[in-house]
Amino acid sequence: MRTILTRCPNCGGEMEVTRLHCTRCETVILARYDPCPFCRLKPESQAFITAFVRYRGNLKEMERELGQSYWSLRNRLQEIIQELGFEAVPSREEQGAEREAAVARREILERLERGEISVAEAVAALSKRGEAAP
User: Fold this and answer.
1) Is 27 part of any domain?
2) Is-contact 48 77, C-beta < 8 A?
3) 79 shares a domain with 46
4) Which of 61, 71, 117, 122 gives a 20 to 30 Å CA spacing to 104?
């Protein structure tokens, strides 16, 4: 069976489903329907999602079975999340790094507030960490 077109082959515009037909009783429904978000994915992204579900979301298992690195699979998943229009939730490692950065930043600002370091020293310390001054 053919897959639904989500882009016009002539101009590239978005396509919408406007007619449904029952193959058993011949009922026809005319209306406007949006295709599902997964239908809008590129074929290779759909294939990745199918494999992801098949391996129950286990990227390590996909790595073993597909012969691709964990990090390339993870990056591909991130791309598909963005392709679907979602913002990815940070991993535990990323959340931990963000917490550590926030704690270090807070310590620098508290030292500045207590007068233990100058504004220039605080700016230098924040710049060293790759952060902008408050």
Assistant:
1) no
2) yes
3) yes
4) 71
Backbone angles phi, psi at 27, to 5 degrees: -65, 140
Task: Give me the residue label for tokens 């504004």.
Answer: 119
Amino acid residing at 25: C
Q: Would you tell me the crossing angle of helices 59-66 and 43-54 to the nearest 10 degrees?
A: 110
Confirm whether 59 is domain-assigned.
yes
Give the C-alpha separation, 30 to 35, whole Å: 15
* Whole-number pLDDT of residue 88: 65
The residue type at 45: S
pTM above 0.85, yes or no: no
What does the block give as tokens for 48? 């990745």
Helix, strand, coil percent values for the chain (each to nearest 5): 50, 10, 40
Identify the band that residue 101 occupies on the pLDDT scale cut at 50, 70 and 90. confident
Domain with 48 in it: 41-83
pLDDT in tens, 2-33: 777 778 889 988 888 888 899 999 999 999 88
